[in-house]
Each structure stands twice: as C-alpha cells, then as structure tokens.
Design a protein that fits this description.
Strand content: 5-15%
CATH architecture of the largest domain: 3-Layer(aba) Sandwich
Number of strands: 16
Bound molecules: uridine-5'-diphosphate-glucuronic acid
Strand order of the largest sheet: 11-10-9-12-13-14-15-16
Structural class: alpha/beta
Helix content: 40-55%
Radius of gyration: 24 Å
CATH topology of the largest domain: Rossmann fold
Length: 450
C-alpha cells in the first residue's frame, strides 16, 4: 500500500483522497485553509456529494485518512503526491495556474527524498507538467530526482464516488516508465481500463473530452430550436439519433444549456489552445455561443408569452448547475434568476441543497423557500432550472392546486407531454410542443405559441 498525499481538498482532491483510502492506501490531505481542515477532521464533507461523507468518516475512523494544513507533515513521507488544486479561467479564457505554481513550489521546498511521484489531477493547459517540473526544481533544497505524471479525472459532480469506482477509463500520461507502472499498480484494484499515454496527450484527452461533451449538448440544443420552429419533438429526434451506436444516447438531453466548473471552462481552454497553436476551432466558439443563447431561452419564451414579467410571481425550481450537487458555479438557474429579477418578476427559489451557495451569488434579490410547496404557492409562473428527482416527481396536480396561474417553463424536460395533457396547466419545455389545458396539445412556432 502506498502513502499518498493530496495537495488541495477541493472537489477532486477530497473525493480522490477518500476513495484511495477506501481501497486501503494511507492518505493525507493537505489544505492551507484551517477552517476547511477542521470541518473535515470532524468527519463533515465541505460540499454535498452523495456517499462521500460516509466513506470519509469510515476511513477517518480506520486511521487511513488524515487531514492537515501542514505541507511538511503532508509531503515528507509520501510516495505519491497528487496535485488537485483548482484552475479557474483567467479573463482571456485560459486556465489560471497560480494555485498549481504555489503548490508545486511548496512541494519543491518540502520533499527530501528521491523518486517521489508527483501526479497532476487538476485540469491544466497543455505543457503544464513541464512547468510543474521547473517550479518544483526551482525550490528544491538539494538535488533530488522525482517522477511526474498527468492523471486527469473524469468524475461527474453528483456521481463522483460512483465514478471513481466505476469509471469508463483511467488516463495516465508520463514520460517516465516507472511513473506509469506505479500508477497502473495503484489503480489496478479498481478494475477500470487504463490507458497509458505521453504527458501532453493525457493533458489533451481531458479538455478534449469535456469540450466534446459540450459540443454534443449544444448541437442538441440547436436542434431543439429547430424542433420548436417546425413543431417537432427533440426527444424523439435524439432517441432516433442515439439508437445509432456510433452516436449513442447519452449527453443528448436538450435543456437550458450546460453549466458547472468544467464544461464551459474546458471548452474555452481548447479554443484558447487551438488559437495559440494556429489551428483555430471556430466550431467551439459556436458551441459556447449556442449555450449562451440557450441559457435565457425559457425567459425569452415567457416574455413572448406574457409580453412583460413585471410583478409576476415566479417560482424557480432548482439552483445548482445540475442535480445531486450544491455547486452553483456557472449554473444556468442563477443566470435565470438574475434575468427574471431584471424583468421585474418576484422570484422565490427552491433547491434541496444549493440555497446556501446560491445566496452568495444572488443575495436577497430573490426569496428562498424550504419546500417546493412554499415556492409554488400562489405563483403565476414556474421555471425549472435543475432536474432534481424531487422536482421530477412533483405530482402534476400540485402545480394546479398550488399555483394561481399554472404556467410552467421547464428547462430540463422533466415531464412527459402526455402526462401533462389531462391537467389545467400550460406547459412549455425545450424543443417540444407546448401543452395547454386538458387534452389540448398545440404546436409551438419559434418562441411564441403560434
Ligand atoms: C464534467 C464531465 O462530465 C466529467 O467527466 C468531468 O470529470 C468533469 O466535468 C470535470 O472536468 O471535472 P460535471 O461538470 O460534473 O462533469 O457535469 P456534467 O454531468 O458533465 O454536466 C455538465 C452540464 O451539462 C450540466 O449543467 C448539465 O445539466 C448539462 N447537460 C448534461 C445537459 O444540458 N445535457 C446533457 O445531456 C448532459
């Protein structure tokens, strides 16, 4: 079993550390934020991720997992150090490496043994591992030999623990045979296919995968707008397309667009890289542009329907960028909330776990409710931004019982059109015909009702 240090206890770091402890390794997670470390030492996760807290508690109790603010305690005995700090976009769209640089230099100042393996799990621009090597070397107190590897992660927020144990592939990129071998042995117990590459290819695989997923979503969203114009149904279209095994059905859900800390950021990074090397991919500019249009599509539909939203009571259901997470970074729901307020609507939002984070972004410009019922009570309109199970399972009668004027704008196509037909409600969704009242389905043309 290996001694592993995790540098940075954000989302990737904490999930990776806990899961590696679970398969028997001694893991020490280092973070310079004492408040975070104190919370983690109490066995409390610092963000919501299904299954994580339970595993964390078990491994803390078993003594396989330690948290510390001290880089010296963290790195001095480690066989492997994994860099898992954040790489936000800088104003030019490229990834900001300041945290990676700080951590690399800290590692350089702290390590005292030869042959330590330093692994980059953070999403980084191409060539970053070379810079990491230089940053570490610049701070070494005496000449030491260390190995470097790129090992990007493909965890989905909300399913990260599951993905760690059941991922589709593990990518290890290194120019050191020893590093490739060590990581292969480390991950063997997970029984997930391992692909070994050179360092730069591994770095590219990560951002290329996320930008391809973004491309799939934007393509479907663009098709959904065509469906609205011609009176088609995007779900039938994607079902028909997805049955072709070469296309596949996943990530073909039309909606109000992709958010989160990864897809938008990595798409911008590939665009940036492509321009930098003189091989521009204008396709990805369009992917981002389509997403921007899509984000406010529901509000445009509501405006086309009502002319003005001034004074309308609007329930906003879901605030996180996707279900099963409390992360609101680049969340479309947050953008919708801001635009609704700009249009003069009085907004009450509900989310099972993301209200605390949403408040940091939105403050008191909207109200928040603890229950779906409270959010929907006496509302004129309901906007669905996140497809939480709880939202998908609202009995349809509740919309007509609780709302004054039950007009629903569903940005995640949570309900079957047929199921909506029997109720006195007006239901608008993405790329599908609008349903109005009992047994009355009409075609939408453009954003209006035709
Ligand atoms: C994404 C990738 O899916 C992970 O493989 C990767 O490891 C991760 O980024 C990362 O780089 O760390 P994540 O950002 O957690 O994961 O979320 P996704 O499940 O990819 O969803 C991203 C956004 O796309 C969400 O807003 C979601 O609502 C939207 N989406 C997804 C759609 O609009 N339609 C779809 O069909 C699928």
């Amino acid at each position: 079993m290996k001694k592993i240090a995790i540098a940075g206890t954000g989302y990737v770091g904490l999930v990776t550390g806990v899961c590696l402890a679970e398969i028997g390794h001694d893991v020490i997670c280092v973070d310079r934020d004492p408040q975070k470390i104190n919370t983690l030492l109490k066995g409390e996760a610092t963000f919501y991720e299904p299954g994580l807290e339970e595993l964390m508690k078990n491994n803390l109790e078993a003594g396989r997992l330690i948290f510390t603010t001290s880089p010296t305690i963290g790195y001095q005995d480690a066989d492997i150090i994994m860099i898992t700090v954040g790489t936000p976009n800088d104003p030019n769209g490229s990834l900001d490496l300041q945290y990676i640089e700080q951590i690399s230099k800290e590692i350089g100042r702290t390590i005292t043994r030869n042959n330590i393996l330093i692994v980059t799990k953070s999403t980084v621009p191409l060539g970053t591992n070379e810079k990491i090597k230089e940053w570490i070397q610049s701070e070494l107190r005496s000449p030491l030999y260390f190995h470097l590897a790129a090992n990007p992660e493909f965890l989905r927020q909300g399913a990260a623990v599951y993905d760690t144990f059941h991922g589709d592939r593990i990518i290890i990129g290194s120019d050191s045979k020893e590093a490739l071998h060590t990581l292969e042995e480390l991950y063997k117990p997970l029984h997930i296919p391992i692909i070994k590459t050179d360092t730069k290819s591994a770095e590219l695989i990560k951002i290329a995968s996320n930008s391809f997923l973004a491309l799939k979503i934007s393509y479907v969203n663009a098709l959904s707008s065509i469906c609205e114009q011609i009176g088609g149904n995007i779900e039938e279209v994607t079902l028909g397309m997805g049955m072709d095994a070469r296309i596949g059905t996943s990530f073909l859900n039309a909606g109000v667009g992709f958010g989160g800390s990864c897809l938008p950021k990595d798409t911008k990074e590939v665009t940036h890289l492509a321009n930098e090397v003189g091989e521009p991919i204008r396709l990805l500019d369009e992917v981002l542009e389509i997403n921007k249009r899509q984000e406010l599509r529901l509000i445009d539909k509501a405006l086309a329907r009502f002319k003005s939203l001034k004074g309308k009571k609007a329930a906003l259901l879901g605030l996180s960028f996707k279900p099963n997470t409390d992360d609101v970074r680049e969340s479309v729901s947050i953008k919708m909330a801001k635009r609704l307020v700009m249009e003069g609507a009085i907004v009450t939002a509900y989310d099972p776990v993301a209200i605390r984070n949403a408040k940091r972004e939105l403050g008191e410009i909207i109200s928040y409710s603890d229950t779906l019922e409270q959010a929907l009570m006496n509302a004129d309109l309901a906007f669905i931004g996140t497809e939480w199970e709880e939202i998908k399972n609202i009995p349809i009668t509740m919309f007509s019982e609780w709302m004054t004027e039950p007009v629903i704008f569903d940005g995640r196509n949570c309900f079957q059109l047929d199921a909506m037909k029997g109720f006195p409600i007006e239901y608008h969704s993405i790329g599908r015909p609008c349903v109005i009242g009992k047994e009355n389905i009409i075609k939408t043309f453009g954003l209006g009702l035709g």
